[in-house]
Amino acid sequence: MKDKKKDEPNLEFIAEAEEILEVISKNLLAMEESQDRLSPHPEIINAIFRGVHTLKGIAGMMGFNNITELSHTLENLLDAMRMGRLTLTSVVIKLLFESTETLRKLVEKVSKDGNDSIDTSRLLSDIENALKKKPEDAAAHKLEELDLDSNVLKVLTEYENHRLEENLRLSANIFEITAGFSLETFDKDLNQINSMISGFGEVITTLPSSGASPDIGIEFKLIVGTKEDFNYVTSILSGTNVKIREIKYQRKNEKIKAGEHDEAQAAESPSSVKSLSMTVRVNINRLDRLLNIVGELVLNKAVITHISKNLRAIEGFSEWALELEKAARTLDKKLNELQEGLMEVRMVPLNSLFDRLTRMTRKLSRESGKIIDIRIFGEETELDRLMIEEIADPLMHIVRNAVDHGIETQEERIKSGKKEIGTIKLSAMQRGGHVVIEVEDDGGGINIKRVKDIAVEKGLIPPNSSLSEKEAIELLFAPGFSTSKVVTEVSGRGVGLDVVRKNLVKLSGTIDIETKEKIGTKFIITLPITLMILKALIVQVGEEIFALPINTVSESLMITKKDIQTVERREVIQLREKTLPILRLEDAFNMKNLDAKTDSMYVVVVGSGNRKIGFVVDALLGQQEIVIKSLGKILSGIQGVAGATELGNRKTVLVLDVGALIEESVQEYKEEVKG
Amino acid sequence: MSKKVLVIEDSSTMRSMIAAIIEEMDDFAVTEAASGFEALKLLPTEKFDLIITDINMPDINGLEVVNFVKTHPNYKKIPLIIITTERSEEDRKKGIALGASEYITKPFKHDELQEVVRRIIG
């Protein structure tokens, strides 16, 4: 234990230093990608400054003098930049990159040899030289004259002070935005408002106060600088519950005659117009509304196509029939483009979610005393905005599991000859209409025997039941299953993988587990890129018509009665040397058993990974785009139905919830085996 | 009963160092907050005897933490120590003016921090 304590600070230092350097690199890249690389968003410089500042602090405490010295000098440079005492030039940018690289080498040296002895003298003197460049004059405004609560000025750090002055210098409008929140959710709520503001301005400071009900609530005052006016700010923040006040002050140019006014201002801030980004922030609800309209248009299009087909059937190749058919085709094409365009707008990259997960992992690993390296791949993969919100919790749960149950303690890892530092790999990639997200750890893997023991203990399976590895892993998703011996701080309480799967199924997603003992575990989540409008396979069972989301269908085949066998009281067919369980939809929905008149029928294979099943249907009616509508409150509880949709002939049909049906059939099967 | 200290610091290395130094002393228990927001959430959950806060943090700064605590009816009696750097003299003065009891400058020694903590709530 004592020895471990001794090594730990170094490892923790290296981990955090690497994290900091990563942040710095990201911001340097953001700076390079800025519209005007010589005047990037102030927060970029400040973020780099903060990183270097922290690095200096911790290196100082650890006694790594070269890192301390270089980050100290670099901090001086960055401080001069963020405080407006030094202008950013190409030379400075080059120095920033070079310094970051050198810091990386120094940290590497620490991790290899435990010391940081690399000569940095040339770089140090280069930075010192750059610092000698003449400071730019910044005529200070008198902040005291601002119509601001005096308490606000008292809590501004030097940097925030400078940012406020800088905003005044550029004749920006200053707003005070006040909002109250509950103590439980204020961070989320505030982040939302912050991200709205960052689209048009800069949050100079965020001041918390106890507010009117200090026991349950908290109030925040944000001071914001922007080029936009009151009406604009109010309209952007209209959906939120904030009070907005403009802080008036005497602008330097206001005394100038009207004619010169514009010119003078333009001369003062040459990059002001350019630096406004070319983006518009839109409330997601508005996009939803547009998408709904498109959805209805798609239905209308289907009606038109239907009419055109009928007309052709009646009239043959008449002029009108051909005209209508052509028009319907064009409409179809344009609607597709419109739909794709709208979908694209709703797509956001996964990086912010991945960042959140990274932070959480680092925090959890500290709390659990395990040292874990988290690696991110494919964070640029895009997913529908709403989808990202919905998968955040399930993903967090899985990552938590990986930290808590997956990665072993340091002692165990050393004993089994593994690297001391555990790794969690978080990756995303697009595959056709799906996004696959994987959470992979190099931990101990799932102990199948233990899983079985616990399942027996909990009465989920009878003792001595012979389950394959796959079936045993499935047990992890059974309600109420948890392999953790003790409820730890890290893993959630009571919420198990069953909930995770249920939530993913709701999104038409699937989850699979691959595990190897002593090597690690991989969770594979597959999600459709977007919800709502989707291609469906229309099938007929008896008199009823159902729609199956095509992204859940892997193939369909024709079979005859004799292809169906019964294994353990369950109907199956053989599909390429594998046994595929089948489900008769008329049974699932308790429909009249029509006792199939013909010998041949169709099997639609749905699901993915280990969870495939075949739906038996009477006929395949073709593919069609559908818009899923909810069934309303009364019918929303029906198992196996995701919603309803209208087909082109104005007939309403049910859209099957494939995930739930698979679930149900597996469940039933288990109960049967048990009984 | 052990004394409860809330440490607010965004650097994890620094935070665990401070925690280790304080927990070395008898009868001190540390709760760690990685950001100002986290601290605001932790404050109502326990009765803290002391708060140690960094100044430069990404969400709300340490001065705002001091001001929040010192003007809040439930927390205003909790003493605070601010962690500063040799660079930020202005910030240090402001922190003390807002009601922080002490400051300590990075990099600091083991004993230095323990001494300051003892002076305030020993």
Structure description:
The complex is a heterodimer of chains A (675) and B (122). Chain A is an alpha+beta fold. Chain A has 20 helices and 22 strands. In chain A, helix 3 runs antiparallel to helix 4, helix 3 (65-82) packs parallel to helix 5 (121-131) and helix 16 packs across helix 17 (469-475). The longest helix of chain A has 32 residues, at 2-33. Chain A is globular, with a radius of gyration of 31 Å. The two termini of chain A are 51 Å apart. Residues 1-6, 253-277 and 485-494 of chain A have low confidence and may be disordered. Helix content of chain B is 43%, strand content 21%. Chain B has helices at residues 12-24, 36-42, 62-71, 89-98, 110-121; strands spanning 3-8, 28-33, 50-54, 80-84, 102-105. In chain B, helix 4 links the parallel strand 4 (80-84) and strand 5 (102-105). In chain B, helix 3 packs parallel to helix 4 (89-98). Chain B is globular and about 35 Å long. The A-B interface holds A 9, 12-13, 15-16, 47, 50, 53-54, 57-58, 60-62, 75, 79, 151, 154-160, 183-184, 186-187, 190, 205-210, 214-215, 218, 362-363, 366 and B 10-14, 16-17, 34, 36-37, 40-41, 44, 55-56, 58-61, 63-64, 66-68, 71-74, 85, 87-88, 90-91, 94, 97-98, 106-108.
The mean pLDDT of chain A is: 80
- Ends apart, CA distance between termini of chain B: 13 Å
Overall body shape of chain A: globular
- Biggest beta sheet attributes of chain A: 6 strands, mixed
**What's the gyration radius of chain A in Å?**
31 Å
By oligomeric state, this entry counts as heterodimer
Termini separation of chain A = 51 Å
What is the element string of chain B, with H for helices and E for strands?
A: EHEHEHEHEH
Strand order of the largest sheet of chain A: 14-18-19-17-16-15
Helix content of chain B: 40-55%
Structural class of chain B: alpha/beta
Query: What's the number of helices of chain A?
Result: 20
Structural class per helix/strand content of chain A? alpha+beta
Let me know the largest β-sheet of chain B: 5 strands, parallel
Helix content, binned percent of chain A: 40-55%
> pLDDT under 50 segments of chain A (min length 5)?
1-6, 253-277, 485-494
